[in-house]
Specification:
about 30% helix; 2 domains; alpha/beta; Cobalt-precorrin-4 Transmethylase, domain 1; Methyltransferase, Cobalt-precorrin-4 Transmethylase, Domain 2
Chain lengths: ~250, ~250
C-alpha cells in the first residue's frame, strides 16, 4: 500500500493567492506537515491531523511527511510562496534521494504557488519584466563569498535582482553588505523595492534607490528587488510610484 | 470619472492555477483586452466586451485598455503566466509613462500569476530551489550579444537558468546557440528540462542533459530549465525522474 505526498505552495499571505489546485490538495489530505506559521493559515478540517514543526527543521519535516505517505496516508507538506523557490520541495527531493526505495516509489505531486517576488513585483509595477535573477542571502547553506560572486555577476550583466531571505535576527549584516557590493557596479539611482508582508494586513511596499536603501527596512517577511540600470520609476499624483523594467534592453558595457 | 485597470495573470493553461484574486478581477471587468489565445481561456460572461488582439501588438493593446479605463470603464487586460514576467505589465507601465496624465491618475491593480518556470519546475521536481535566473531568448527587443553575455554570466556564477521564449518560427536558431554557449562552461551532464504546454491536455516534460538537449524539442509553448553544476536527477521506478537543485551550495571555481 502506498499513499501520496502533495507538496503545496500557499502563496504569500493572502488567501486569494491560493490556487484552486493547492486548495484541493489541502482538502484531500489526511495529514498536514509544515512550519507552524504556515499551518496556521490553513482552515482546520475535521479528521485532518496537523504536524507543525519549527522553521529550521526542513529535512526532518520532509522525511516525516514521506514516511507517513509511504505508510499509505494521503499527506500534504506545505510552504508559503512557491514550494520550489528556496523552499521545502528541494528538501523533499533530497530525502527521496537519500531515503529508502519506498520514497522513490511514492507518488509525489508538487503544486506551484505565487512566489514572493511575483507578489512584490505586482504591487510595485513590473520590475521583473526583463531578465532577472533570484538570490537567497541566507548563508546557512552556502558560503557568503558565493553570494557576493553571484551578486557581482548579476549586476554586471544587467539582471534585475530579487533578494530572498534578506534579513533576520540571525542574519543582521548580509543585506547591508549585499547593497554595498551592488553599489560598486550599479548607479546610485537604481530603484530598490522593499516589499514586506505583501498580501497580509500589515503589508508595506517602499521604493528607494540604491543610494537611499536602508538595510534596516528589511526583516524576515521582506523581499527586496534591486532594479537594473534600465529600471524606471513613474511618479503618480494619487498613489505610489510604479517601478518597471522595459522589455527593450540595450547592450550594457561589460 | 475614472475607471480601473486590472492587469491579470491567468497562469499556465490549467484553470486550477488561476488564483481567486485573478478570477474575481475577470468577473468584475466590463471589458477584457488580451491576446486572442488568452481570452479564449476565459469563460464568457453576459455584458462583458472582449477586445482580442494579435500576439505582437502589446503596446497598442496596453494603450487601448488604458484609454478605456481612463474613460471610466472597469477594464481587465490579461496574459498567460504572470503579467510581470516577460509579459504585458511592462507594456502597460510604459504606456502609463508615455501617455496622458489621466493614465497616471488611474487606479491600476496587477494580480500575479503562476509563471511558466514555476509550473515546469513543479512538474520536474525542484530545479529552481537554489539561486536562479530567468532569461528571455527573444531578441526582438534586445541585442543577441546581450543574451549571450547574460547566459555566460549566469552559468559562470552557478545560477540555474530558466529560458523563456526559447523558440518560434521567427526564432529558429537562438536556443541551439544558447545551449552551445552554455556547453562552453557547464558540464555535459548538466540536467536540462523541457516543459511544453504544462497544464494543458498536450503537456509534456522531458529531462535531458546539456550533451543530449535538442533545440528541436522546444517551440513557442516550451519553457527550458538548464540546471547548475549542482542540480541532480533522481531516477524513479514508477514515474518520471525528479530534478532538483539542493539548497546547500558550494563555492564554484571562478
Amino acid at each position: 500500500m502506498s499513499g501520496h505526498l502533495a507538496v503545496v505552495g500557499l502563496g504569500p499571505g493572502d488567501a486569494r493567492w491560493l490556487t484552486p489546485e493547492a486548495d484541493a490538495a489541502l482538502a484531500r489530505a489526511e495529514a498536514l506537515y509544515g512550519y507552524a506559521g504556515y499551518l496556521d493559515r490553513i482552515p482546520s478540517r475535521p479528521g485532518q491531523a496537523r504536524h507543525p514543526s519549527d522553521n529550521h527543521e526542513e529535512a526532518a519535516r520532509a522525511a516525516a511527511s514521506l514516511h507517513a505517505a509511504a505508510a499509505g496516508a494521503e499527506v500534504a507538506i506545505v510552504t508559503g510562496g512557491d514550494p520550489g523557490v528556496f523552499a521545502i520541495a528541494a528538501a523533499v527531493c533530497a530525502e527521496i534521494e537519500a531515503g529508502p526505495e519506498s520514497f522513490r516509489q511514492l507518488e509525489v505531486t508538487i503544486t506551484p504557488g505565487i512566489s514572493a517576488m511575483l507578489a512584490v513585483a505586482a504591487r510595485a509595477g513590473a520590475p521583473l519584466a526583463n531578465d532577472f535573477c533570484a538570490i537567497s542571502l541566507s548563508d546557512n547553506l552556502k558560503p557568503w563569498e558565493l553570494v557576493e560572486r553571484r551578486l557581482k555577476a548579476a549586476a554586471g550583466a544587467g539582471f534585475v535582482i530579487a533578494l530572498y531571505n534578506p534579513a533576520s535576527r540571525a542574519r543582521p549584516w548580509q543585506l547591508g553588505r549585499a547593497l554595498d557590493v551592488l553599489r560598486q557596479s550599479l548607479p546610485a539611482e537604481t530603484p530598490v523595492v522593499f516589499g514586506r508582508a505583501v498580501g497580509r494586513p500589515d503589508e508595506s511596499v517602499a521604493v528607494r534607490t540604491l543610494a537611499t536603501a536602508e538595510p534596516a527596512g528589511a526583516d524576515m517577511a521582506t523581499l527586496v528587488i534591486v532594479g537594473s540600470p534600465e529600471t524606471r520609476v513613474i511618479a503618480r499624483p494619487d498613489g505610489p510610484p510604479l517601478v518597471y523594467t522595459p522589455r527593450a534592453a540595450h547592450s550594457v558595457d561589460p
